[in-house]
Specification:
heterodimer, A: alpha/beta, Pyruvate-ferredoxin Oxidoreductase, domain 3, 6-stranded mixed β-sheet, 6 helices, 18% strand, B: alpha/beta, Rossmann fold, 15 strands, globular
Amino acid sequence: MFQVRIHGRGGQGVVAAAEILSMAAFAEGRHAQAFPSFGSERMGAPVVSFCRIDDRPIRTHEPVMEPDALVIQDVTLIHQVELFAGLSADAYVLINTSRSFDELGLGEFARRFHRDRLLTCPATELALEHLGRPLPNAVLLGGFAALTGQITLDAIGTAVRERFPGAVGDRNMAAAAAAFRFVTLEEEEMVHASTD
Amino acid sequence: MLRQIEGSRAVAETVALCRPEVVCAYPISPQTHIIEAIGVMVASGALAPCEFINVESEFAAMSVSIGASAAGARAYTATASQGLLFMIEAVYNAAGLGLPIVMTLANRAIGAPINIWNDHSDAMAVRDAGWIQLFAETNQEAADLHVLAFRLAEELSLPVMVCMDGFILTHAVERVDLPDQAQVDAYLPPYEPRQVLEPDDPVSIGAMVGPEAFEEVRYLAHLRQLDALERIPALATAFEEAFGRPSGGLVSPYRTEDADIVIVALGSVLGTIKDAVDARRDAGDRVGVLGITAFRPFPNDAVREALSGARSVVVVEKAFSIGFGGVLSTDVAMASHDTGCTLRTIVCGLGGRPITSRSLEQAFAAAALDELDSLTFLDLDHEIVERERTRMTTTRRSGPSAENILRDLGTVASRID
């Protein structure tokens, strides 16, 4: 089972992101379960959502305590919320920011993890470019697909277009594809840097 | 058709396939998404001639459902928590009058302190109202049970409550196989009322009944609930034949055949329990699970049979009777009184407290060693309780306990669990 926790703020589509990820996994014939952390969905308030993906039916209904991947939609949560609770050294972390882990004051923290599993991605900028609105949720799923390999970009596209029919879906998909390319390039650069 | 869909949406679409004629409900979390979705479908004309009646309260919602059902309409409503309590007089009336209303209860804690999260105290508060109460383990079962519920309700002329865990199921997006209209039509015949308010053939429904007949009327209601014990398995079999998957039934056992220890529970926690049971099986404990799908009527014989080989029974409950202990435990104890097993109760998940497989596994391991207390409050913070107890003994005006405890805990908004 692969377990994902998504952190953001009310209004950023935190709950929708987990739903779309589960729909993408479903589109690939896998079992998936998406659910919000309940009750705190107010505009601007910290919100958490969860997604589990597996090849067999998912029975558990507990919150994700030990995520395999963390997606952080709002970088201002970093020093306010226990974002990294339950995270193992093998986990993936994707943060929506144009800054690096060092610039975020997370350099020391990041060294506890696999270097190629921790990435930042300027999803809000990509959203503004492609959607004209600062909605990073679907964008980050493109980055998630590239970072974790748990889902294909095509499946994300299917789910995004199902959730947002028409032009909105197309624009979200273009932004998600841009994030996919961004993360893929970052990973390639890291590979080059480590072999040089 | 297989869909990746929110539990509330799956229930709304399934209820729509049951061709309700009157839907009357008042919004309350975590039931709201169900009612919103049905409201949109009615407004679009897709469910014509169904009427969605807006009312000012849950009391009115159940009263309108009673009126609609008495007038011969297939009536549906949904509520939760305080909403259920607000309509409780009418809830009893619906059962007492024998009106086959189907209601979704999106299980939620009851205040005070106010809490919107899941537990089973709302369902337990109306345990004795005369409704059939079915508990869904998954969103698939939540959807399926509604089809079964309409048929069961109308065959017996009794109201049926389908209980699904608020948020945990209602707001979870999971895989659900939704039936099509032809399948539901083949399973669920049109409503043929046993009693109906009709100008051409007038009757009174709900007359005053004195001591000369009240006991007989109540006993008849009991007999009809016992009839449900026969009809629920039969309708579950018919459901499986019609839809190609099992759903409903009285109880659902898992790995109980050779079990020394059997865990008994209601609702969605059964999934987490099954994972914990598999882990304990791997560790060598012979443990199994008995899910109770029909809580009212309570399937005494089926429970007794399932527990007959167990040395120890652990009832996991999301509610308790303050000043006593387990609610479901009492029923399980009655059903298994002569099997020689020891019975323990774990109270957990109150007001949405996460029930983790880790804590359950520890409790089940303790049960295997006969080291589990007879009444355990899972993951209770004893230190916080002691601080408030001390405050109460040392200070006369110690203030409101809930607020004192919140202050002791500090900010919780940043916590994952």
